[in-house]
Design brief:
mainly beta, 774 residues, 44 strands
Length: 774
């Protein structure tokens, strides 16, 4: 009997072995190079694999039958191949094509996983490393670089802040590798200048309200993705030295910059390190006048130190550590002089600024990431632990009683656990689901440097579970839908307000705990069948605590005493974003467009009440459209253009009125021409920027302009980029900012109606640099 049972088991195992075979294969691109990291599915089963570094894959234990094999990956077109498996293993050799320009660009911010623009139903702008490298030869000011490249983003102000810069008329969340830099509890507008352009690999801009990373993304997200190691060399690198100055009046305007990068791979380790030092000179306008030092980029000392180290434990497991230190301090030998809004600008004259130096003494960012590509069946895991420590000092002002400098300190600690599970239900329904938990502790306050408490310490703890589904339906439809639950606890101590401006101060406020909870949703649908017309529709929401510190420092005394739990408006903002758009690729032509509507029951505008800028909480509606187009005339000649229009109103007791110029940007158009003649030895780039007019308001009954209502006149700028490549290693670059020396006021200087902002833009400036790669 035992012999019979043993024989039966052996026969059964042999039958199962014959009934289950393996599918192996190798995938190469059009140049014959292996393609790692592709996902391979057998539609209608849960069988899958991921290609290794050699482009190979194995799907094990597949029963004989007919199947549809699907191969998909970031930056590539999808392969769909009918295969028949009989009583033997099947070996395949497959070719995969690169995805079309635009639709195939990789983005990680939109869904917290690597995906392409063509699989995301929302508006996205990617600023590539090549664009950054070229345009940073014109200016290293990241505010200006983004304003020139992102439709819907206000042009930079030529200052160290992004005051007056909005994305689609609303605030945005600035991040470095997903680490939040913004301080939405007390917005100081210093978050854009938080890292040097030399260590940024690309910039991802997700436009429209989104809650995927939490508090503060009413207008969208700007994520600076830092550089990673490339190639297999043990050591490689780049040295960049440059000098910059005014072309209108060179005296005292010269500055210098040096940046060194090293990168390499050592067995299972890879690394990137960078050090950058920059000293800027005096900035001058088109007439050669010294621009006022108020929040200026002039005479700044900028230091950036960056390191990223990765270790591949095995094919499935990796850990990575990143650290970045950024410091920018102004050492001005000039002080503000004269100026009157609408008549003459503030200029700079020799002198010593009172109070403490303005700038950011430090901004520390660090993360530790663990990645497991196969933690359990069909599921990968990313765990990211991050830390940010930020301190910035504002200019001295007599606005505070007795004078002083205010400062913002912000410390953030967080952890993100991110799971991604592949779903393969049928040939007509497959995709993945991303889910996990975000934990964030944000402690922010705004003291004066002499120790007085201007804005009290705000201690926010946020626990937010989320889930995001991406499903391919009937091959040509891509559905994306998600939900996030915000669970916020905000502790504020007892405090007493101080006197500033026309605010009397001295109000004793009872602290307490402010709880918030909100369930935010997003959903989108994209039709992916045709490259020439790839449309989408979407709805998304964001959650934010609008600049709570500004509200707290203006607390009013009330019967029974002021209290954060009673007498102060602390409600959160939920913003709804509705959008329809498309991407298109037709041969050498590509285009994209979107129309959006953004609504919120509570707003975030500032109004002047008795000489003090005060938050106004009113329902708002913003709408607009964006359009981009590009054509590759020749292999070495391309032209790209964009146009963006934004407009908005709020509901007040007086009816619907236009939102101020500090929120809404005038129409903006750009045209870029890039040409590389002489067998790629010479690169030429010409960048045209047009900022339109916006004149929506009239003077008040006193004949004055209210805060943010100034008339904005149009202006145009042209920038030039040239580079000569002596060989593969050595390049000489020359950039000219404001080539034709336009005499203009930035948008905020015209619209804000405050004399201390009535400062001209910089005149023509040059930047000459030498880059050596090894």
């Amino acid at each position: 009997m035992k012999k019979l049972v043993s024989f039966g088991l052996a026969l059964l195992l042999a039958t199962l072995q014959l009934a289950a075979q393996n599918i192996t294969g190798k995938i190469q691109d059009s140049t014959g190079n292996a393609v790692p990291g592709l996902r391979i599915y057998l539609a209608g089963t849960q069988k899958h694999a991921i290609t290794n570094n050699d482009g190979g894959f194995t799907i094990r234990d597949v029963k004989p039958g007919n199947y549809k094999l699907i191969a998909t990956g970031i930056g590539y077109t999808t392969i769909e191949k009918e295969v028949t498996l009989q009583n033997d293993n099947l070996a395949l050799n497959l070719l995969i094509d690169n995805a079309k320009v635009g639709l195939g660009e990789v983005v990680v911010t939109a869904g917290r996983n690597r995906e392409t623009i063509g699989t995301v139903p929302s508006s996205i702008t990617i600023i590539s490393g090549k664009q950054l490298q070229e345009q940073s030869a014109i200016t290293t000011d990241i505010n200006q670089l983004l304003g020139l490249n992102v439709p819907g983003l206000t042009l930079g102000t030529n200052t160290a802040t992004k005051k007056g810069e909005t994305l689609r008329g609303r605030s945005m969340l600035i991040m470095i590798d997903g680490i939040p830099q913004s301080t939405p509890l007390r917005n100081g507008d210093k978050d854009m200048r938080s890292i040097d352009v030399s260590v940024i690999e690309r910039v991802e801009v997700i436009k429209g309200a989104t809650a995927i990373y939490g508090n503060g993304a009413d207008g969208g997200i700007i994520n600076f993705i830092t550089k990673k190691a490339t190639g297999d060399k043990k050591i490689s690198g780049a040295t960049d030295v440059s000098t910059a100055g005014s072309l209108t009046s060179a005296a005292n305007s010269m500055g210098g910059r040096v940046s060194q990068t090293l990168s390499g791979t050592l067995n299972k380790f890879d690394y990137v390190v960078n050090g950058t030092y920059e000293q800027t000179g005096v900035y001058k306008d088109a007439k050669g006048e010294v621009i006022a030092p108020f929040q200026s980029l002039a005479q700044n000392e900028n230091i950036n130190a960056f390191a990223k180290v990765g270790y591949n434990i095995n094919d499935n497991n990796r850990i990575e550590l990143m650290y970045n230190y950024y410091r920018t301090m102004q050492n001005s030998t000039y002080i503000n002089s004269g100026g009157k809004f609408g008549e003459s600008p503030i200029t700079g004259v020799l002198g010593t600024l009172p109070g403490a130096k303005q700038g950011t003494p430090y901004n520390h960012n660090a993360y530790l990431t663990y990645t497991n590509k196969h933690i359990f069946k069909n599921t990968s895991l990313d765990v990211n632990i991050y830390y940010q420590d930020f301190y910035t000092i504002f200019e001295y002002s007599d606005f505070y009683e007795g004078g002083g400098n205010s400062a913002i300190t912000s410390r953030k600690k967080g952890i993100r656990a991110n799971f991604n599970t592949l779903l393969n239900i049928s040939p007509d329904l497959h995709g993945d689901i991303t889910y996990g938990l975000d934990v964030l502790n944000d402690v922010t306050e705004q003291p004066l440097v002499d120790g007085r408490k201007f804005v009290p310490r705000m201690d926010m703890k946020n626990y937010a579970p989320y889930a995001q589904l991406k499903a391919y339906i009937f091959k040509d439809f891509l559905l994306k839908a998600g939900v996030r639950y915000e669970n916020v606890s905000l502790d504020i101590p007892d405090f007493t307000t101080i006197k500033f401006g026309n605010y009397a101060g001295g109000v004793k406020v009872k602290g307490g705990n402010l709880p918030y909870d909100a369930l935010t949703y997003n959903a989108g649908l994209r039709y992916t069948r045709f490259d020439y017309f790839n449309p989408f529709v979407s709805f998304s929401q964001s959650f934010s605590l609008y600049d709570l510190g500004r509200t707290l420092r203006l607390a009013k005394d009330v019967p029974g005493g002021a209290s954060v739990n009673g007498s102060i408006q602390t409600d959160a903002i939920i913003t709804n974003n509705y959008e329809a758009g498309f991407n298109s690729n037709i041969g050498k032509f590509n285009a994209s467009g979107a129309y959006f509507i953004s609504t919120s029951n509570l707003g975030s505008s500032l109004v002047d009440i008795n000489g003090v800028a005060t938050p106004e909480r009113a329902p708002e509606r913003i709408q607009g459209f964006e359009f981009t187009a590009g054509y590759q005339f020749l292999a070495n000649l391309s032209v790209n253009a964009s146009y963006a229009h934004v407009e908005g109103k709020k509901e007040t007791a007086a009816g619907k009125v236009y939102l101020p110029g500090s929120r809404i940007t005038p129409d903006k158009a750009t045209v870029n021409v890039n040409y590389s003649p002489f067998r790629q030895k010479l690169d030429l780039g010409l960048y045209y920027i047009y900022s339109g007019s916006r004149k929506r308001f009239s003077p008040n009954s006193k004949g004055d302009w209210d805060l943010g209502t100034g008339p904005v006149s149009s202006f145009s700028l042209v920038n030039l980029y040239t580079a000569y490549h002596f060989n593969k290693a050595t390049t000489l670059r020359l950039g000219v900012d404001n080539l034709f020396n336009a005499d203009y006021y930035p948008v905020l200087a015209q619209s804000r109606v405050v004399t201390d902002s009535y400062i001209k833009g910089a005149g023509a400036r040059f930047n000459l640099g030498l880059n050596y790669r090894f």
